[in-house]
Amino acid sequence: MNDFLGKTALITGASSGLGEGYALELAKRGANVILVARRTDRLRELSDRINAEYGVKASSVLPIDLSARDAATSLARMIKGRGMQIDILINDAGFGQTIAFAEEDAQWVRNELAVNVQTLVELTHEFLPGMLERKSGIVINIASTAAFQSLPYMAVYGATKAFVLSFTEALWGETRESGVKVLTVCPGPTETEFFEAGGSSPALGRFIRKREHVMETTFKELAKPKPRAAVIDGGLNKLTAISSRFFTRTFAIKLSGKIMKPKKSTSTPK
User: 170-211 pLDDT, tens per residue?
Assistant: First the structure.
């Protein structure tokens, strides 16, 4: 618990889902949190809740569209302008939709790439050097079990999560002797607004886990002196992630296509 006491955490996608879960868990452990997302009202509600329940500083509500050009630079400038030091960075913001790629809106695709990949990389680049200089800090990038196989009907989303996994594992390799902990968290389907919104593949419903499970998986790994590069939440999700090793890629893609084919499109940005 005391490892987080008095630390300052920057959490993107904090207005709901896993981002909100990480904010609450870190506040519970004594960290001050900076909440970042687009929805100002939701951020302020969460900030008020954290202040009331845990008495830590959650007054830093920074509503920003992370798909905007130079969003990471602007966010870093605001934080540094307030004299705040980031000890923990959680890149949770991300979104996707279940739809055939040919039917996706071009601007939607650009925004998805910007949030899921570009802004994540740029925020990591903004704050990791300071952590390395201090020989202390935590970077958590949220990938997905979608990172382990190609996903028809979530082609862009799956590809962005494969990037996040590869990128973060590489950073782990560069920093593992530095005192900074770099971790990729790979949840499977989780009880968040993405699935509550409806329209996702009906076959995924049986795999949905609660966000508390993801929190438990994350902080159990962080408690280790030297965490692994990546963790997958849930035994069934681990099995699903490695199962592609035992089939041809063609078979795995066909199977994923049958599982992922939607009744209707769904999307939930954060």
Answer: 999 999 999 999 999 999 988 876 555 434 554 555 568 899
Find the largest Cα–Cα distance for the chain.
53
Catalytic residue among 22, 54, 153, 157: 157
Residue in 151, 164, 149 with CA at minimum distance from that of residue 240: 149
CATH number (domain holding residue 64)? 3.40.50.720
- Domain membership of residue 168 (yes or no) is yes
Q: Is residue 68 part of a domain?
A: yes
Q: Using alpha carbons, select from 121, 109, 125, 102 the residue that is nearest to residue 163.
A: 121
Q: How far is CA 257 from CA 129, 143, 187, 251, 253, in A?
A: 41, 20, 20, 10, 6
Q: How many CB atoms lie within 10 A of CB 67?
A: 21
Domain that holds residue 12: 2-260
- Edge-to-edge, what's the strand order for the sheet holding 88-91? 60-63, 32-37, 8-12, 88-91, 137-142, 180-186, 230-232
Dihedral pair phi/psi, residue 73, rounded to 5°: -65, -45
Q: pTM (2 decimals)?
A: 0.89
Query: How many structural domains are present in the chain?
Result: 1
Place of tokens 């830093």: 60
212 part of a folded domain? yes
Report the C-alpha gap between 204 and 208 in whole angstroms.
7
Sorted by sequence, the CB contacts under 8 Å of residue 57 that are 6+ apart come out as: 32, 33, 51
**Would residue 267 count as lying in a domain?**
no
Q: DSSP code of 116?
A: I
Mark whether 157 is an active-site residue. yes
